Amino acid sequence: MPSSVQSKLLKIIIRYPQVIAWGPFKHGQGYWVPYYFNFRGAVALPKLRQAIVSTLASEAKKYKVDVVAGAETAGIAWGALVADKLNKPFVYVRKERKHFLTKRAVEGIYRAGARAVLIDDTLLLGSTKRQMVRQARRDGLNITHILLLYISGQGNRSNWRKLKKWLAGRHITLKACVTRQELCKAFLNKGVLTPELLKLGSIYMADPYGWHKSALARKLSSSLKGQRRKYEQ
User: What mean pLDDT comes out for the span 115-142?
Assistant: First the structure.
């Protein structure tokens, strides 16, 4: 995505420090997150929502796809908004296959073999996206592109290389409007994030499952409390 587009979007995002969720939180996959960018909540902010949808739609328009798909759950709203802007059919892809009625992973109407762009807020390890791609193909939907609001999974280099190889083997492109690093830098310059919190974020990205056990991480985590009191609503 062109740097000018990213810069324009970042300038809008940093007006809304409430998109940062101050943790630590336990993720559904079992690891702890010190803080994260909560773009699920950004749907409630009209000007930010419009900027994000415009950026996503501008990129998705380049793809030769038949369907816009939203990833459960954060990607459902964004995918639907992008599909509406592009006047494309919309479906959503479940994380787990439905165990009753249709027993499908993909909800929506589409022709068998249709090409789709899967829209979501982010990814870290990529395991959920891989599962969605496999499940969708079982249901006759061919995900050829994954488009994210921001990318956060490059901290663990080994995992990132495996994910890129897996996607390349299935001819799937992966793009994001901005990166986690760009978001962190922008919010650092704005004074919302601190150098200590950036360091903590780097430790987390390098080891999502074990970062919180280190003495340095515990020390740096104390700065979360002050930022939570200052910015959390």
Answer: 93
Query: b vs e for 78-100, b when ≥16 Cβ sit within 10 Å of the residue's Cβ?
Result: bbbbbbebbebbbbbbbeeeeee
The class level of CATH for 3-231 reads alpha beta
End-to-end CA distance of the chain: 32
Long-range residue pairs from 216-221, CB within 8 A, at least 24 positions apart, any chain:
217/34, 220/196, 221/24, 221/34
Q: How large a percentage of the chain has pLDDT more than 90? A: 69
H or E element, residue 147: strand 141-151
Tell me the pLDDT tens digit for each residue of 12-69: 999 999 999 998 998 877 889 999 999 998 999 999 999 999 999 999 999 999 999 9
107 touches 101 (CB < 8 A): no
Paired with 176 in beta bridges are: 148
Other beta carbons less than 10 A from residue 75's beta carbon: 27
3-class DSSP state of 169: helix
Alpha carbons 48 and 46: distance in angstroms, whole number: 6
Domain parsing of the chain, residue ranges: 3-231
